[in-house]
Amino acid sequence: MRHGGFLRILYLICLFSFLLDIYAYQGVKTWVKGWKSVRRQKIAKRSYLVLFTGVTILFLCAITFAPRYLTRFQEWSLTLFLTFLFTKLFFIIVLLLGDIVRFFWGIFRRIFKPKPLSGEPKPVSGESKPVLGESKPVLGELKPVSGESKRVPAGPFFPSRRRFIAEAGILLASVPFTGFFYAMFKGKYDYRLHEVTLYFDDLPASFDGFTITQLSDFHSGSFDNMSAVTRGIDIAKSLQSDLFVFTGDLVNNMAWEVEPYISLFSQLKAPYGQFSILGNHDYGDYARWDDPEQKEANFEKIKQHHQALGYRLMLNENTVIRKGSDQLALIGVENWGRGFIQVGDIDKALEGVDKNAFKILLSHDPTHWEEKIRFHPTTIHLTLSGHTHGAQFGIETDRLRWSPVQGRYLDWAGLANEKNRYLYVNRGFGFLAFSGRLGIWPEVTKLTLRKA
Length: 452
What we know:
- By secondary structure, the protein is an alpha/beta fold.
- Helix content is 37%, strand content 16%.
- Strand 7 (326-332), helix 8 (346-349) and strand 8 (359-362) form a beta-alpha-beta unit.
- Helix 1 packs antiparallel against helix 2 and helix 1 packs across helix 3.
């Protein structure tokens, strides 16, 4: 993260954040202006500057003095930066709307409301003169000077910012602030079980009711709560499925990241075996290495860790799962993703597979299915992927399903179907970069195969 255009973009975002602080600070001053205690006003204003600008400075330090790989310190500094950035954005939206109203009201008042005059009005033609007995000016009373007509000051062009606007902004800003903190401390370990039943005409009879537990995207280097991770693994263990599969991204970058969790993840067992594939992060492409040999050694260590976990790592290959007198083909490819490393070779992985066999493919990135698998001349009945995390942020209800990641991925979570070729995208067990989840919760998947 130290070099290149990406770092420059981050610096520009930090500069933008500082500019927002200048504007938001004016709203804070408006909010505290009515407080009786001057001391409390100073504390509130200084607290804003220390917290909001301090978090931006912390993030600047994290990206400027970055080590060779993504650390928890970087993840937490990014997470706090995003939390405070979105909080002040919501605050500023309300302030800006209020200032726009002030601007147009100022114009309207200048155009349609003439300025009042001070002093006595000039006599109008035909106006009655003072009658006998009417009081005369007393000594010392000021008379208007001939030709003088002073205007009363009309006030500033813009009306002053109302305090209730600042209060409304703070109320709205509390929504992302509270949500992000929930995502950080609760949401990222709020594991959800997704159960899906799929029906196939050509499923071998012996596999009717066959169950698969899928986990994906551990990103072990991001975990910071062993007991919480254990709860998620316990959910997967309780399913007692026939087959267990892991669909990539065991680590963020470094092989040692998974080592504290090997004894835990190795508890995932299934009667028909445990199988895994690599994700884009497992290749070490997002860390800086002294030489290619160091990167290759890290990659080989990751492969060894799959073996230590009791998972059979599939590298563009296939195997046969037998049950009774029937069998199905399980295929696993290396990573192939649009915009990411593309070393997955589906044709090589299909070598030796019966054309009429029922096939299940493990492929980390769903864009592989979008661009290759669903149009492949060989029918692959079910593809299991991960990778997207659902952006770790979004909304999923019975009627509404949205995440910012859908701007990049056609199929970013759950089930997709193209002429009876199915794709299931796991939302991920772990998290990356943003140390939290909100709306798109970490997932444990149970798939049941049924004969139509």
